[in-house]
From TrEMBL:
<feature type="transmembrane region" description="Helical">
    <location>
        <begin position="41"/>
        <end position="64"/>
    </location>
</feature>
<keyword id="KW-1133">Transmembrane helix</keyword>
<feature type="transmembrane region" description="Helical">
    <location>
        <begin position="12"/>
        <end position="29"/>
    </location>
</feature>
<dbReference type="GO" id="GO:0005886">
    <property type="term" value="C:plasma membrane"/>
</dbReference>
<feature type="transmembrane region" description="Helical">
    <location>
        <begin position="120"/>
        <end position="138"/>
    </location>
</feature>
<protein>
    <recommendedName>
        <fullName>Copper resistance protein D</fullName>
    </recommendedName>
</protein>
<comment type="similarity">
    <text>Belongs to the CopD family.</text>
</comment>
<feature type="transmembrane region" description="Helical">
    <location>
        <begin position="199"/>
        <end position="221"/>
    </location>
</feature>
<feature type="transmembrane region" description="Helical">
    <location>
        <begin position="233"/>
        <end position="254"/>
    </location>
</feature>
<feature type="transmembrane region" description="Helical">
    <location>
        <begin position="283"/>
        <end position="302"/>
    </location>
</feature>
<dbReference type="Pfam" id="PF05425">
    <property type="entry name" value="CopD"/>
</dbReference>
<feature type="transmembrane region" description="Helical">
    <location>
        <begin position="158"/>
        <end position="178"/>
    </location>
</feature>
<comment type="function">
    <text>Involved in copper resistance.</text>
</comment>
<dbReference type="InterPro" id="IPR047689">
    <property type="entry name" value="CopD"/>
</dbReference>
<keyword id="KW-0812">Transmembrane</keyword>
<feature type="transmembrane region" description="Helical">
    <location>
        <begin position="94"/>
        <end position="113"/>
    </location>
</feature>
<keyword id="KW-1003">Cell membrane</keyword>
Amino acid sequence: MGDPITIALRFALYIDLILLFGLALFGLYSLKGQERISGVVFNFGSILLWAAVIGTLLSVAAMLQMAKVMSGASSFFELHQHILQMIVTSTDVGLTWMVRIAALLLVAVAAIFSKRAPTLSLILASVLGAIALSTLAWTGHGAMDEGLLRYVHFTSDIAHLLGAGGWLGALVAFVLLLRSKRLDGERRLRLLSRTLTGFESAGALIVISLAITGIANYVLIVGPEISGVMRSTYGLLLALKIVLFIGMLILAAANRFHLSPLLDRSLQTGSYAPAINALRRSIILEFAVAIAIVSLVAWFGTLSPEMDMAAE
């Protein structure tokens, strides 16, 4: 089993950066004109600023934890400056860490303009959020590869991370819309209906991307081996992730083909409480499943399949 503190920090960092990127991206492709202004639909100024600040603090904590583990120190107080300096300036993970910190600081700056220049603010936050999220690929299994395979693996990891960001960001946006009191009831529900419909194409592309890159990552990490892997902790966690992913797709299909059309029909009749309650339960459950998947990724990303299989 991996170090619990490392796993917890990885999980928190995944969630923070995924939501930073995903919510900013959602604001760009789902909201229009005045809807993008912070405070009209979502308080983008606070969301982006806090996500950037928390992401920076978590990144610092993760770097300190990595240095502690790599140096064998029993506490953070035993860490020497030269160890941190060596990791930050002389390793790929350290260099990408600096890129992440810079991107997050710039997101905080972009958040300041969320009312005066909302579209520009969201564009900058989406691009910088994508950069920050992509740097997490260097903390995964791809960092163990060499040559061309290393960059193929990084590309697959980055695509997987960005796909997850697009998916979870949309789920959180839908939950916020269902709970929002910024808009009157019918206007809010019509916006929810429109964004749900608009997400259909993007959601399909994200699912395809997640499936392809998920398979690619498995092959790049383990190879064609299946039976041996399934007897290891890594394999069991991966199998659980696949089961949860299938469950998430079933919930998404229910939203797409049943609950979203039900909401559209209820808006025409004016009796939309049952549709809203059903949609709320489904989306919250889908989000909970997605969070469970991210927690598994944070865990088995610290495991070595080869060592795990050998131990078995």
